[in-house]
Amino acid sequence: MKHIVKFLSLCCILFAFSSQAELEIYKDYDLGTEIIVMTTVRIDPNMENVYLAGLRESWIKAVRLQKKLGYIKDWKIYGSELPQSGDFNMILMVIFENSSDLDPNKEKYNTFMKSWGKANQDNSREITKTYPNVRTLTGEYRLREIMFK
C-alpha cells in the first residue's frame, strides 16, 4: 500500500513538472462516472481478525444489503501484505455507478432501514463501539477514474 501511494505521488510530481503544455479535460482525458469511496484504516498489531469479525457483522452486512437493493455497484476490502508499514494497512471501498448515487434520498434510506431492521441496527451499534480499541481511521477519499485518450 505504501508503495502504491509513493508511486502515485511520484507520478503526480512528474506530470506536474515534466510537461509545459497543460492538458485539457475531454480533449486529452475523460473522467469516469463511477465513484469509489475509500476509507484507509490502521489496524493495531494482531487485531486484524478481531476487526474483520466486527466488520462481518456490521459493515459487510450493510454493504451486502445496499448492493442487493441496487444502491451500490460493489464493495471491497483490501489488506496489506506488509501490515506494519505505512499509515494504513486496510482499505474499505464502496463503488457507486455515479455521483448521484451519493445524494441524500429519503426513500432509499427508509427502504434500507426497513430491510436492515432494529436487530442489525442495535448489533451494529454495539460492535462499532469497540472499533476504536483496535483501529484508527487514517483517511477518507472520493475517487473518480481519469482515462487518458
CATH fold group: Alpha-Beta Plaits
How many individual helices? 4
By helix and strand content, what is the structural category? alpha+beta
**How many domains is the backbone divided into?**
1
For the biggest β-sheet, the strand order reads: 2-3-1-4
Q: Which residues form runs of ≥5 with pLDDT under 50?
A: none
How far apart are the termini?
Answer: 27 Å
- The CATH C-level class name: Alpha Beta
Into which percent range does the helicity of residues fall? Answer: 40-55%
Order of helices and strands: HEHHEEHE
Task: Give me the secondary-structure topology.
Elements: H1 2-18, E1 29-43, H2 48-57, H3 59-68, E2 74-79, E3 90-96, H4 106-129, E4 135-148
Antiparallel strand pairs: 1-3, 1-4, 2-3
Helix pairs in contact: 3-4
Question: Describe it for me?
Answer:
The chain has a single domain, classed as Alpha-Beta Plaits. By secondary structure, the protein is of the alpha+beta class. A 4-stranded antiparallel sheet has the order 2-3-1-4, with helices on one face. It has helices spanning about 1-20, 50-55, 60-70, 105-130, and strands at about 30-45, 75-80, 90-95, 135-149. The longest helix is centred in the last third of the chain and has 24 residues, at about 105-130. The chain starts with a helix and ends with a strand. The protein has 4 helices and 4 strands; from the N terminus they run αβααββαβ. The chain is about 40% helix and about 30% strand.
